[in-house]
Amino acid sequence: AQQIDLAVVAGDGIGTEVVEQGLLALEAALTGTGRTLRTTDFDLGARRWHATGETLTDDDLAAIRTHDAILLGAIGDPSVPSGVLERGLLLKLRFALDHYVNLRPAKLFPGVSSPLADPGEIDFVVVREGTEGPYVGNGGAIRVGTPHEVANEVSVNTAFGVERVVRDAFARAAARPRQKLTLVHKHNVLVHAGHLWRRTVEAVNAEFPQVTVDYLHVDAATIFLVTDPSRFDVIVTDNLFGDILTDLAGAVVGGIGLAASANINPDRTAPSMFEPVHGSAPDIAGQGKADPTATVLSVALLLDHLGLPDAAAKVEAAVAADVLERSGRVRTTAEVGKDLAARIAG
Amino acid sequence: AQQIDLAVVAGDGIGTEVVEQGLLALEAALTGTGRTLRTTDFDLGARRWHATGETLTDDDLAAIRTHDAILLGAIGDPSVPSGVLERGLLLKLRFALDHYVNLRPAKLFPGVSSPLADPGEIDFVVVREGTEGPYVGNGGAIRVGTPHEVANEVSVNTAFGVERVVRDAFARAAARPRQKLTLVHKHNVLVHAGHLWRRTVEAVNAEFPQVTVDYLHVDAATIFLVTDPSRFDVIVTDNLFGDILTDLAGAVVGGIGLAASANINPDRTAPSMFEPVHGSAPDIAGQGKADPTATVLSVALLLDHLGLPDAAAKVEAAVAADVLERSGRVRTTAEVGKDLAARIAG
Ligand SMILES: CC(C)[C@H](C(=O)O)[C@@H](O)C(=O)O
Ligand SMILES: CC(C)[C@H](C(=O)O)[C@@H](O)C(=O)O
C-alpha cells in the first residue's frame, strides 16, 4: 500500500504534545517516498476512563488492528489508580498485538552530555521481551488489608516466548559490526526462568556462530552500564529486567527525553507500536516543556519497520544534527518539533 | 558476654582473602572495648560441595546459630552449577536465620571517585527485604528442554514480612537528619505485591509522622541513582529490586570494592550476618588484588549491631582516612588490610 494507515494513541499528559511533533517529523520524512499518511486518533487513556470506565475495548482493539502501525505518546495519570491504565491499556496493547520484541536503542549522540564522567562511545540496543515474565498479570492476593495478607506475582516464561525473542536478538546482533550479544538475567536466584533463558541462548547461538555471547546477572549489568557502557552491543533480557535496564540506559545516554522504543510484532500478524520510553510526566504536562525527541526517534524506528530505512536515517540524522547544537538553548516542545521537521525536510 | 563468638564463612574465591583482613580490622577495633573475639571457621562453599555434595547441613546451621554473629566473605564458583551455592548456602542462611533486613549503605567518601561527572553528596542506605519476594525459591518448570517448556518464578509477599521491614526502615529514617523514606517498587505492573507495599508504607507512616515518604518505580529509581543520587536518604524495597539497586548504588559511590552489607535479624532470634556486596570474583582470586575495604566496612556494621558504635565509628573513620589517600596507589589485599588495621588501632 502506498498509504500508511497509522493509529495514533496520544494518551495522557505530555503524550499529546510529543505525538503532535512526532507526526510533523513523520510527514516530513515521508515527503518524496511516494507514501502518504492517514492517521486515526484513538481516544484512550485517563480522559476516556474517567468518562466511560473503559480502558481498551474489544472494538478499540479491532479497529487498531486494521492499521499498519501505532504511534503512542504516553499513558498514565495520577487521577487513575495505579495499574488500571498500565495493565488495561498499554500492556494490553503490547500483549494482544504480540509485541514480543520491545526494542530500545541506547546511543550517546555527539554533543549530548551524559551523567557519566567518562561515558566513552555508547551504541547498543536492548531487546526486551514484551509478552511474558513478571508482566503477564498472573498475580493475586488473599486476605487483602489484613495482617495475614499474601500477595503473589508470577513470572511466566515459555520456551516458545523466550526462543522467538532470543532469535530476534541474535539476528540483530549478527547484523551489527560488533556481533555481540549479552544475556541479562538472574539465573543464580531465578533458577527455573534463568536456566530456560540460558539454555535457549546457547541453543540459538548454534544458528548464529558468528555472534559472541556473554552473560551478566542483572545487578552486575547495572554496574557495567555506569562503569563501562561501551561493552554492550545487543542486550537480550526479560520484560522486567528490560524495563529497568532501559530506563538506566536512557539516563546514561543523556536522559529519557531522547529514549525511543519500538514494540515490534516481527511476524507482522498485528501492527507494531512506537513510543517514547518516558511516561506522561503530569508535572510538566501542558507547558510546552516536554522534549519530543524521543518520539521523533521512535518515528525513525517506525519508518524502519515499514521498510523505509532511508527516511528513518534522515530522521536520525536530523536529531543528531539538532542535539549537537542544543547546549544551553531552551526551546518549547513545538519549537524543537519544528526544527526537527525542518531538518528532515532538508 | 564479654566474648564475641563469631562464625566465619570465608567461602569461595576472594572471600578468604578479604575475610582475613576483615578479622584483622575487627581485632584492632575490639582493643580497649573489653570484648574478646573467638572465631569458628565454617568450611562452606565450592570446596565442600565438591568434596561432599553438601551446601549447608542441619548440623552446620545449628552450629552457626549458637554464635553471636557471622562474617561471610563470598560464595560462588564457576565449577558449581549456578544456583546451587546461592540458593543452598547463601540464601539458605539469610532465610533460615530470618535476616529480613538486608542493610546496604551507599556513601561517597571524600577522595573516592564516582563514575558520575557530578555526583554531589551521596549518603543513603538501602533497606532491602531479605526473606521474601522473588527470592523465595517458589518456582518450577515443566517439559524442561522441550519446545513446550514453561518456567515460572513466584514472588511471595506477606503483610507480616513487608510490615516488619518497612517499620525497620522507618525507624532508620527517623533516626537520620533528613528523615526521608523512598519506597521503590513497580506497583503499576506488579499490582498485588506493589499495592501491599504501598499500603503498608502508608499505614506505618502514621507511627512515624516526622518521616517524609515518597515513591519511585524501580525503573525511575535507577535514573535518579545516576542523575540525582543526593535525593535519597533511606530506600526501602523488595528483595530483587534491592539486589539491583544496591549494586548500582555501589558502583555510583565508587565501586563494589567499597560496598558493605548487613543481613540483620532485628529480633535477635538468630545471629545476623555481615558480608561485602561483591561476589567471589574467581577471575582475580588468589592474586592479592581484591579490595578488603567492603569487608572492613561490613565489620563496622557488625560492631554497630553488637552494641559497639564507638568501635564501629573508628573502623569507618579508618576507611575514610585511607580512601582519601588512595588515588594512584596500588596495594595488595594484605597491605590495604594492614593499613586499615593500623589506622583503627590508632
Ligand atoms: C508504564 C509502564 C507499564 C511501562 C513498563 O513498565 O513497561 C514503562 O515503564 C515502559 O518502560 O514502557
Ligand atoms: C549471590 C546472589 C545470590 C546475591 C543476591 O542476589 O542477593 C548477591 O547478588 C547479593 O546481592 O548479595
UniProtKB/TrEMBL annotation, chains A, B:
Annotated binding of Mg(2+), by residue: 219, 243, 247
Cofactor(s) required, per the database record: Mg(2+); Mn(2+)
Entry annotated with the keyword Manganese: yes
Cofactor note: Binds 1 Mg(2+) or Mn(2+) ion per subunit.
Subcellular location: Cytoplasm
Keyword entries, A-Z: Amino-acid biosynthesis, Branched-chain amino acid biosynthesis, Cytoplasm, Leucine biosynthesis, Magnesium, Manganese, Metal-binding, NAD, Oxidoreductase
Leader sequence segment: none
Positions of NAD(+) binding: 279-291
Binding-site residues for substrate, renumbered to this chain: 94, 104, 128, 219
EC number: 1.1.1.85
Record keyword Manganese present: yes
Transmembrane segments: none
Reaction catalyzed: (2R,3S)-3-isopropylmalate + NAD(+) = 4-methyl-2-oxopentanoate + CO2 + NADH
GO CC list: cytoplasm
Domain Isopropylmalate dehydrogenase-like: 5-340
Enzyme class (EC, first level): oxidoreductase
Gene Ontology biological-process annotations: L-leucine biosynthetic process
InterPro entries tied to this protein: ICDH/IPMDH (IPR050501), IsoCit/isopropylmalate_DH_CS (IPR019818), IsoPropMal-DH-like_dom (IPR024084), LeuB_actb (IPR023698)
Molecular function (Gene Ontology), one example: NAD binding
Pfam families the record matches: Iso_dh
Purpose of the protein: Catalyzes the oxidation of 3-carboxy-2-hydroxy-4-methylpentanoate (3-isopropylmalate) to 3-carboxy-4-methyl-2-oxopentanoate. The product decarboxylates to 4-methyl-2 oxopentanoate.
Subunit-structure text: Homodimer.
PANTHER family listed in its UniProt record: D-MALATE DEHYDROGENASE [DECARBOXYLATING] (PTHR43275:SF1)
Family: Belongs to the isocitrate and isopropylmalate dehydrogenases family. LeuB type 2 subfamily.
Protein name: 3-isopropylmalate dehydrogenase
UniProt organism field: Cellulomonas denverensis
